[in-house]
Amino acid sequence: MTTLERLPYAGQLPASFFAIPAAIYAGLPYRPKENPGLTRELFALQAANHEIITYTDHAHLRLVGIFPHAGPDAYFGFWETTDDAPLNEAAFALLAADARQRGKATLAGPYHFNTFQRYRLRLTGRPSWQQFDREPVNPPYYPALLARAGFAPTLAFESRLLRAATVPEVYRQKNPVLENLGRIPYDFIPVTAASWDALEDELFALIQQIFGANPAYKPVSRAQFRQLYNREYAARLCPHSSVLFRDRHSGRLAALSLCQPNYAALQLPAGQAPVFTRDYARLPRKTLLAKTVGVHPDFRRQGLMSLLAAYAMQGFRDWYEEVLFCLMRADNFSLQFTAGMPVETAHYALFQKHLL
């Protein structure tokens, strides 16, 4: 009989932690990318503000319980498992008991400490693109295992692929916005590794202000932000569509759009990050990923979301065949951009269980 261990984090992860996913994703055309060094660093950074417990049998399941020292919520993350319902029910029961003992009212996940890291499950089994950069992916049986453990979806998300055949119609519909782009009182700053270096402080503040009110959002330290969002990250971005809008009157950054090609087909070696100037020309199909787009609260209701899209559209046909709008919340206004157009859609969810 499989034995589950309960391992409080004390500076190290179990030796089996990074080995378990290999068998689970064998034969699947996708798998989450996990950097052991960055994961260990993340646990070390988070240990000051969280109690962290790993539940594992060292062969078929790993599950991490995340218990913030403050607040009524607990989380689970880093969950990878074979299709074994009794094993998962036992592991989640241990986790729920620990959460109740600590006075937590809800248990949510998958959630790797914050929304800057991996979170959510993909509910769509196998979309045509298989996997894009940092897309949450998992075997198709994961949602059913969570349902058996008493969890239900609490936040919904979508990705929408707009194929090449639809692009001319998009330009026809959005032409008035394109014509207005040159007349707005904003300066356009293309996002490159150099501009990221120069504007990192402003970018860090802008991203916190844009996304700070989103459900499940947790602020992160500068060190945690730099783990993922840094000069190396900026080098993968498309310099023709990634942009910052700076308000000419106040000098403040007002909006951002961070886009990149879908590099997945290149199957770059583990640890090698994509670079636009090196890798774009090698792509067999040019798909633009519209990944992180937002407007500062002080500059909303001015149509800047549409104008950010129009900026990317200026050179889109010279560089790309299709566009994938990534991981939009299902109630987000940005979904209106593709409303009524033929798209391929993938669905995702964050799950929650009430404990009291």
TrEMBL record:
InterPro entries: Acyl_CoA_acyltransferase. This is GNAT superfamily N-acetyltransferase.
